Amino acid sequence: MKSKSLLLCTALAGTVLLPSCFLLPGTDNSETKVAAATLSPVESGEPQKLPVYEASIGTHTLHLMIARSGNELRTGLMFRTEMNPDEGMLFVYSDTQPTMTFWMKNTRIPLDVVFFSSDLSLTEIIRGMRPGTGIPDDQLPRYQTHGPAQYALELSSGTADLLNLKPGDQLNIPLTLLFSDGSR
User: Fold this and answer.
1) Cα–chain-centroid distance for residue 91?
2) What values do phi and psi take at 16, rounded to 5?
3) How far apart are CA 88 and CA 155, in angstroms?
4) Domain containing 59: what range?
C-alpha cells in the first residue's frame, strides 16, 4: 500500500511540476532549467522584466513592455518603484473586452491607465490610480472602464496629462508586436 501511495504522490508531483519545466528553442538546457526553477515575479516580490519596444502616440515616443500571457497580464507593474514618463506597459488582450477592471495589487507607484479599441484608437483614460501595496485584496479599489477596449496602457501617474492624451489619439506600434512575442 505504501508503494502505491508513493507512486501516486510521485505521479501527482510530476503533473504539477511539468508545466514549470520547459525548453526554449536554441537555448542551453542547463540555463533553461535554472530559469524554470526561479520564482515568478509575484512570488519573489520583484518586478517582471519583459522586452521593451518602441511605440508612439502623436509625436511622443514611448518605450513599452508588452504583457500578453496570463501571468504577464496578472503581474503587470507590480513591485516597480519608479517609471519614467516615456515608459509603460501595454496589456494585450486577444479580443475586445466589454469593460476592463484594474486593481493596484502590489503596485508601489501611482499610475494612469489608457485604453484603446481594436484599431488602437484611444477610448478612455483613468488617471491617478493609487498604489496598492499593503492593502488587503478585498479593500483594493477597482478601476473600471465605462466602455469596451482591447488594449490597456499603464503609465506613470500624470503622464496622460503631460502628453495631453485624449480620446481618438492613435497608438502607433508595429502590429506584429501585438500578435507575437516580438521575436519574429
Assistant:
1) 5
2) -70, -40
3) 5
4) 42-179
- pTM for this one? 0.75
29 and 63 housed in the same domain: no
Give the model confidence (pLDDT) of 139-150 as tens digits. Answer: 999 999 999 999
Q: Are residues 130 and 64 part of one domain?
A: yes
The CATH number linked to 171 is 2.60.120.1140
CA dihedral of 161, 59, 181, 90, whole degrees rounded to 10: 10
| Residue 85 and residue 17 in one domain | no
Order of strands, edge to edge, in the sheet holding 60-67? 122-129, 111-116, 149-156, 87-97, 60-67, 52-57, 171-172
How far apart are the C-alpha atoms of 86 and 88, rounded to whole Å? 7
3-state secondary structure of 124: strand
Is the dihedral angle over the CA atoms 150, 153, 157, 160 positive or is it negative?
A: negative
Are 27 and 65 in a shared domain? no
Buried/exposed 156-165: b ≥16 CB within 10 Å, e otherwise: bbebbeebeb
How many structural domains are present in the chain?
Answer: 2
